[in-house]
Specification:
Number of helices: 0
Order of helices and strands: EEEEEEEEEEE
Oligomer: single chain
Length: 128
């Protein structure tokens, strides 16, 4: 059964860094399009970064230049390196997989309704 488990969330001060991880079970992270999303209280779930095969990545404008998505196939893990964190980055962060599309043919969508396997989330809190 496909399963994703996030970890690495924490409380940090503005300007700090965190690295989130998403361990995959039941499929390899190279099989499908994968992405990170976040949701703050009272707000819609927002796409943060997507990654396909061949090093192709896409970022939301709000995190471009600060966040980096990557995957380690040997560890079957998706990563999100977050630098220069801001209070506006405070949210629950989720990783997701679009198992209906091969990782070779990702269109790098950041639409949440395209992803069908989700982790339980990890909380990131950034204080000013």
């Amino acid at each position: 059964q496909a399963q994703l488990v996030e970890s690495g969330g924490d409380s940090v001060q503005a300007g700090g860094s965190l690295r989130l991880s998403c361990a995959s079970a039941g499929f390899t992270v190279d099989s499908y399009c994968m992405a990170w999303f976040r949701q703050a209280p009272g707000k819609e779930r927002e796409g943060v970064a997507a990654i396909g095969n061949y090093g192709v990545e896409k970022y939301a404008d709000s995190v471009k230049g600060r966040f980096t998505v990557s995957k380690d196939i040997s560890k079957n893990t998706l990563w999100l390196q977050m630098n220069s964190l801001k209070p506006g980055d405070t949210a629950m962060y989720y990783c997701a997989a679009e198992t209906g599309r091969s990782g070779r043919f990702c269109d790098m969508t950041l639409r949440a309704d395209r992803y069908n396997v989700w982790g339980q989330g990890t909380q990131v809190t950034v204080s000013s």
